[in-house]
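Hello support,

Our group uses your service weekly, and this is the first time we've seen a run hang past the timeout. The protein is Putative P-loop ATPase protein. I'm not sure whether the cause is the sequence or the server load. Input pasted verbatim:
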Amino acid sequence: MTTVEIVSFDYGHAAPPEAHVILDLRQHFRDPHVNPALRYMTAEDGAVRRSVLGTAGIRPLLRATVRQVQAFAAGPSGDRIAVAVGCVGGRHRSATVAHCLARRLRRRGLEVELWHRDLARPVLERAA
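Update from on-call engineer: The timeout came from a worker crash unrelated to the input. Re-ran successfully.
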């Protein structure tokens, strides 16, 4: 059976992990970090998840990524598929999208391993 390994990460602390599919959320999707009320929260907080999932384009990206992973899994040698989801700080967008992607893939019968490489790292202080 195909195993999908999903890792959320940040581009600010370390290089991206190797993966078959990399989602770079840095430039095209609203960053909750710019909202001072959300800045020190993480994807474990409902307000962050609502903010990320309410961003235009995120849900279509999730649907497209599910289809892409399913295409990889249908291939003749698809025993492991690595998906990396990155943003600037690894606490908001990447972790939320990785979690939602894992849930959607599990509902479609795929075995999924999920980890958040940088969720617990300190907030990267930067201009809003």
